Amino acid sequence: MCYDVVEQKNVYLDQILADRRSYRMFTAAIPQEDQIRRILHAGLLAPYAAASVGGSKDYFRRFFVIKKGTQSMDAAIPLVMEQVNVMAQGLQKEMETNPTLRKKAVMFVQRMEMIRKAGRVPGVGNAPYFIVVAERKGFPPAELQSLAHCLENMWLKATALELGFQLVSITSRMSDNKEFCKILGILAGEWELMGCAVGFPADELSPSIRPPVEDVTRWLE
After folding, report:
1. pLDDT score for 135
2. CA 197 – CA 70 distance, rounded (Å)
3. Which segments within the chain are labelled E, that is strand?
4. What confidence category does residue 88 fall into, taking pLDDT thresholds of 50, 70 and 90?
């Protein structure tokens, strides 16, 4: 391949990697369905744990697109919010007897309290699309790693399409929720879940700041 072409491809990729940001505020504009399909296709191309699920008769990865204002979204919102309350209560109880956890979880607890006061999980209902990705559970368990690869691909594609993207990590807690899985049309407990919100960003975020590579790298001999 021509050196100039390789350099050009790397320039584009480096720019997309640098532009990737977490957006939590979206406009009311709805992305085209073709844009969403292109994001899903990028996720479909992500690596997976073939040794864990390669023998499955049906495909091991599924995508569920929930649009703002639909019956499915209206049903999902309170279920996800309920899970936040369950998590908060369980964490508070554990922190009472675990001072180490109490110290480490301060910022997370504050974040959860903000969500509880708002009464809605960011990305679920305030963005045009809430996308749930399901990875079939296998052995040895590697679903979360596969989902991380998948969501990263989707995130980068959304960035290339100039769409805002936000991980909705609480989705991973919904894998055993029968009511939530019923909305998706899957059996609870058989799939690991992760989610994201996609839409047009409402504002422009500042560039991501990272240290120089040499500051965080050791070359071993």
Report:
1. 94
2. 15
3. 61-67, 129-136, 164-168, 191-199
4. confident
Question: What residues does 129 pair with on adjacent strands?
Answer: 67, 198
Q: Residues 158, 198: contact at Cβ < 8 Å?
A: yes
Q: What is the CA radius of gyration of the chain?
A: 19
Sequence letter at residue 168: V
Largest CA distance in the chain: 62
- 89 burial type by CB count under 10 A (0-12 exposed, 13-18 middle, 19+ buried): exposed
Contact (CB, 8 A) for 198 and 31: yes
Q: Is the preceding peptide bond at 140 cis, omega within 30 degrees of 0? A: yes
Angular region, 214: left φ>0, alpha ψ -120 to 50, beta rest: alpha
pLDDT at 1: 63
Domain ranges of the chain: 24-76+121-199
Q: How far apart are CA 181 and CA 203, in angstroms?
A: 33
* Cβ–Cβ under 8 Å, residues 120 and 126: yes
Report the phi/psi class of residue 72: left, alpha or beta, with left for phi > 0 and alpha for psi in -120 to 50: alpha
Tell me which residue has tokens 């979880």. Answer: 105
Contacts for 152 with CB less than 8 Å, ≥ 6 apart: 46
| Residue 120 confidence (pLDDT) above 90 | no
pLDDT tens for each residue of 12-22: 999 999 999 99
Give the CATH H-level superfamily of domain 24-76+121-199.
NADH Oxidase (3.40.109.10)
Q: Among all chains, which residue has been given the structure tokens 């744990």?
A: 49
- Tokens 């749930």 belong to 132
